[in-house]
From TrEMBL:
Biological source species: Capnocytophaga granulosa
Protein name: Uroporphyrinogen-III synthase
CDD domains associated with the record: HemD
Gene Ontology molecular function: uroporphyrinogen-III synthase activity
Record InterPro entries: 4pyrrol_syn_uPrphyn_synt_sf (IPR036108), 4pyrrol_synth_uPrphyn_synth (IPR003754), UROS/Hem4 (IPR039793)
A single GO BP: uroporphyrinogen III biosynthetic process
Domain Tetrapyrrole biosynthesis uroporphyrinogen III synthase residues, every copy: 38-210
Gene Ontology CC annotation, any one: cytosol
Amino acid sequence: MVQLFSTKLLSPAQLQAFVCAGFALEMSDFIKVVPATALTWVPQADYFLLTSQNALYALRSMPCYEQLPHRKAFCVGEKTRKLLEAEGWEVVASFDYAKQLAPYLVKHYAKSSFVFFCGEKRMDTLPTTLKANHIQLQECLTYHTQPTPMKLTKRYEGLLFFSPSAIESYLRENTLSGEKAICIGTTTQAALPEAVESYVAERPTVESVLACCKELFKNR
């Protein structure tokens, strides 16, 4: 049985999917998300931007959440979109990556204003692109990402990574030497040392990460 380790705690259903596919999966959270200091003002813009579920989880805990002028948003990630819609938001459009969302906004919403709910380690893609095209953007810090590294005491054939921050945390206590690194997306893969044997899921979802693992280890 192929031994895998996930640097993120998966849901019981996701874990069961790996087990049913014939994998032995162990897991632990290598990062911790902490809400930022609550905003003391109510963000105002034509649209809101979210590139992470963590941004919404943190925003919901702030008093300003119920006072937002509307709930129209653009987002990155299928899970983020589903969470927003479950909360009653109108998701105007969603993309797998910020590098896809940014040019779309420039082309179709250049005269609109945006508030970007994000963490302190957010990628520069959206702010850089929108500001370069003179599109009004305000960033609101809603959460912090803290590393929670741990030393692994056994070897695994595959390591699952879901964010650049988790890779940074993992490398504080561990090395990569021969394991296959399976990443949820290209941004995460880019955080790995160049010499590491790495693979990227076709889409940035846990289900696609599982599909990637099946393909990699299908002859085992």
